[in-house]
Amino acid sequence: MVGNLNFTLDTFILRKLAQELRKKYGDIYEIYLGSTRTIWLNRADMVDEIMLSNNRLAENFNLDEIGVSDKGVLLNRNLDDVMYHRKIFDKTILTSQFGKNITPITQSLFKELESLWKNYGCLEGDKEIDILLWMERLGFECMLKLFTNFRAYALINYYNFLNPKQKVIVPENPLSPIVTEGFIKNLPNFFFIIHHFFFSVKCLLRAPGKRKITNNYLRGKDWLDSNIMNLIKLRKSQIENYSIDELPHHPEVLQQIREELTNVIGTKEDSEITFEDLNKLKYCKAVITEVGRLHTFIPINGRVSLKSVVIDNYKFPANQQFIINAAAIHLDPKNWNNPEEFDPSRFLSSDGDSKNTLMMFGGGPRTCPGRNLGMTQLKILMALIYRKYDIELVDPTAQIKSKYSFINQCYEMKVKIKQRRNIEKEF
């Protein structure tokens, strides 16, 4: 009855199992998760039919119970409804105007971050900080300002928490610091909770005895809808964190980044960066894309066929559950030369990636609606950080601290930051 269902409770183990099974059985195999037969696809050319139109999400009793499996994009099983919502996104956050709006917002908030770093004494290269915690708050502030025009002052509140003897006065805040800090603190656990929540509602309803379920625990559609935008922000912040980890190990790549920044933006470290400048940062975009390939944000994706489908000469019926192993596709030597190597230049040519070989932002109708916005902000943060600062990993030999709970998530990044000197003389 259980089969391999226990592996779903730890997606790191599940991903490791998938890699071992691929070595033994090839690019397509089946695993029973409980009584459910799942077909695992590990090659780019196998996923086309499933990713495009012949797919929906697997039925989930728990999501049905709280009324979200037929709403929005992320958890919606109704493909027609998903396409309707996609049209709304096409006219809003996928437009260039959102990129133009986020550019000055990010620069303004980054200046606030720099001021706090300076006051905290962490710009001389001798003080350790967890840059991930700062970047999470910066990302939260940027998204909040973009979508609501409100500020939560999460950066200032975090600084005051770290440095209580030299607090910065917090401006009048429409959002309580208790609420915002609690939200940011628990955001890394959001997808872990969602992952386990998929299995919990049915167990609660079937468990014997009386129990009281309050609104504090089951918040339904409104609560989940408010968190959909977190996926955009969290994807961006995770790629950013893995970039910070990769670049100290590849000084030649960092040098090329800085050369491009000098050619496009100039050597004045505080000059304004425009949206048009960002569109010229081809190498920076290639670096971000390569990080997304090596550190797959959502390593495995589940889909269910709407109709019968033939894949690799195997015929599968309608309602068959498939698992797309994006992490394996990203490291497939059939798709990439030296797939384990960090080589951003592979994305500089027009044929840098073929169809379905790169699923950095997902694929098909469920492609991340915030991909353009996320890429714009990743490029501007890369420019703001590396044109002015050197970032050193506290322990360059340590393995990056990450966990898998539906997403590939970095949870700690200890670094030292030092301001660069005589930038003009370097070029």
General description of the model:
The chain is an alpha+beta fold and 427 residues long. It has one domain: Orthogonal Bundle (Cytochrome p450). The protein is 47% helix and 13% strand. The chain contains 16 helices and eleven strands. A four-stranded mixed sheet has the order 1-2-7-4. A three-stranded antiparallel sheet has the order 3-11-8. A two-stranded antiparallel sheet has the order 5-6. A hairpin with a 2-residue loop joins strand 1 (28-33) and strand 2 (36-41). Helix 10 (220-246) crosses helix 13, helix 10 (220-246) runs parallel beside helix 15 (371-386) and helix 11 (251-265) runs antiparallel to helix 13 (282-294). The chain is globular and about 65 Å long. 33% of the residues are buried.
Share of helix, binned: 40-55%
Would you give the CATH topology?
Cytochrome p450
Rounded mean pLDDT is 80
Q: Could you give the order of strands across the largest sheet?
A: 1-2-7-4
Query: From the coordinates shown, what is the CATH architecture?
Result: Orthogonal Bundle
Q: How many helical stretches?
A: 16
Features:
single chain; 427 residues; alpha+beta; Cytochrome p450; four-stranded mixed beta sheet; three-stranded antiparallel beta sheet; 11 strands; 47% helix; 13% strand
Summarize the structure.
Helices cover 47% and strands 13% of the residues.
